[in-house]
Amino acid sequence: MSDTATVPALQEHVHGPLKHQFDDIAQQHEADTLGMWLFLATEVMFFGGMFTGYSIYRSQYHEAFAAASNHLDLLMGTINTGVLIGSSLTMAMAVHAAALGRRRALIICLIATMVLGCGFLGIKAYEYHHKFVENLVPGPNFHFEGNSARETEVFYSFYFAMTGLHAIHMIIGVGILAVLTFYAWWRGFHPQNKHIEITGLYWHFVDIVWIFLFPLLYLVGHHEK
Amino acid sequence: MSDHIVPIRTYFVIFMTLLIFTLITVGVALVDLGRFNVVVALAIAGIKATLVVLFFMHVRWSSPLTKIFIAASLFWLAILLGFTAADYISRAWTPLGLSW
Fold this sequence. Notes:
The structure holds 2 protein chains of 2 kinds.
Chain A: H1 7-14, H2 25-60, H3 62-69, H4 74-99, H5 103-133, H6 149-186, H7 195-219
Helix pairs in contact in A: 2-6, 2-7, 3-6, 4-5, 4-7, 5-6, 6-7
Chain B: H1 8-29, H2 36-56, H3 64-90
Helix pairs in contact in B: 1-2
């Protein structure tokens, strides 16, 4: 290694990107990607159970779900959808920067993704706060005008369970990004290293879950208003 | 292969498309289409999810094995949704007497 060795080259020298159990880097990439996709397949079933439950109850309590949905903040939901799609863009750009070995761009994109992710969680927290103030949180203090209060409470149970589980995934994602940002700043990533890419897969998956949650929770009742 | 490097421009085009679809889905939700409102909303969500999977998650350039993994997860999800729906839909068809 010469003195002008760049950070990626230095890291390759310390411990190369190819793990000893793989024949070559292509095989290792394939294994990395498949491992994350296998995990995401289990996540599809995890969220799928909730979506199934939601679908059944919505078919049973159609009017109550529409009325309850109209009490969600459509503007905040729409803004949050935009924020999350924006975070997916910066995540994709981080993967791009990592593949080209551009360390500075990588760190900026990772930080931007975390900022947008935290922005999403902040807006979500604001919405949760309003639901607490309006007594729309399932439990002894739940109060909803009209004669289908029990059915709307079911809707809000789904709302908090599904968005809550989604928010937990976001928090974990921001945590992983924070660790990766630290490593990127500390010693950089070799372009062949796939940590950023498979984290990106997870982040985009969480975005996709929201893409389905948004219409099902926020939009289902608006035309009946 | 996963080494394929997608130009940044593609990401911006997908990002703008996703934002436009979000505005369309909100706009359509305010128009009364009866029971087709939820169909349109889910169709748009499906298009958005497909764009994210193909471009942001690079599946368009992924190996066939990765694509099989994704297809398998969707297949199991279809079993979960389909069989549960079949149960609830068909319950009303054969009312069971108390003696059953």
